[in-house]
Write a structure and sequence with these properties.
The complex is a heterodimer of chains A (136) and B (128). Chain A has 136 residues and is mainly alpha-helical. Chain A is built from five helices and no strands. Helices cover 73% and strands 0% of the residues of chain B. The radius of gyration of chain B is 20 Å and the shape is extended. Chain B has 128 residues and is mainly alpha-helical. The chains are: A mainly alpha (136), B mainly alpha (128). Chains A and B meet through helix 1, helix 2, helix 3, helix 4 and helix 5 of A and helix 1, helix 2, helix 3 and helix 4 of B.
């Protein structure tokens, strides 16, 4: 696992700027989404295997901590898709694989992800406040 | 930073498992953008977790189209995620024998969890 230490150490020191940032965000958003997806498949499967447990699983999802996590998760999913599309698009036009277009495109991906996320975050945040903070 | 412009190079790509896995990631990735985003938009943003219970799931799965949608989601998203995890792990595990063990473990986990999800979608909601 020396390569893991090299990665953790190197990721802090290596100044790869936008390209490195998008690489790290792509991996972390992918791994985070996979972790959630695994739990989500298993808790949804209770509707068939242990139907009486489903309401307990849903009760956890309704907690404030999970709803905040859900808002973060939605950003990760939007970013992962937008950034994946950027990579696919660059592969169609290999001339784009140069530092300047790469840097610009990472900025665009972050901006588009943020703009797509804002209305979703607002709507989910509104639901969180209504259900968990106003006695509703 | 002045780099020479990239020069197009062509190399023969063997049609092996890694090539197929790469192609799967690219095609499933593009497909998952509408599939996952629409799922998240409907369930997390518009409907919301406070409106979701056994009755809601039963109502949704009463439509065959939504069951097929969820099967596609399960098949493509989980395989895409598990192969992504495999890619990340291979960056840290180099010895072929260790990689084979990790791959076997991931394959078993992928099959087992996919099967659980698929049985639930096909079997549907049961009375508690």
């Amino acid at each position: 696992m020396s390569s893991l230490r090299a990665t953790l150490d190197g990721s802090m020191r290596y100044r790869g700027h936008e390209g490195q940032l998008s690489f790290l965000l792509h991996r972390l958003s992918g791994l985070g989404t996979l972790l959630f997806l695994t739990i989500h498949i298993l808790d949804t499967a209770t509707v068939y295997f242990f139907p009486s447990l489903y309401q307990h699983a849903i009760a956890i999802y309704r907690s404030t901590a999970f709803m905040l996590g859900e808002i973060v998760l939605v950003f990760l999913v939007i970013f992962h898709g937008t950034n994946g599309l950027r990579i696919a698009l660059f592969d169609f036009f290999p001339r784009l694989w140069r530092p300047a277009p790469e840097k610009r495109s990472v900025g665009w991906v972050l901006a588009i992800s943020f703009l797509l996320w804002l209305p979703a975050a607002y709507w989910m945040g509104r639901s969180l406040v209504i259900h968990n903070f106003s006695g509703g | 930073m002045t780099l020479p412009p990239p020069v197009e190079r062509r190399a023969p790509v063997p049609l092996n498992f890694e090539t197929l896995a790469w192609l799967f990631m690219r095609y499933s990735g593009v497909l998952l953008i509408p599939l996952v985003w629409i799922h998240v938009l409907i369930q997390d943003v518009l409907v919301g977790v406070h409106a979701i219970d056994l009755d809601y799931v039963a109502m949704r799965w009463a439509t065959l189209g939504w069951r097929l949608y969820d099967i596609a989601l399960l098949a493509f998203a989980f395989a895409h995620g598990m192969n992504g995890l495999r890619t990340v792990l291979h960056d840290f595990i180099h010895r072929p024998v260790h990689r084979r063990r990790v791959d076997a473990l991931l394959l078993a986990a992928w099959f087992f969890i996919s099967a659980i999800g698929a049985v639930a979608i096909v079997g549907g909601v049961r009375a508690p």
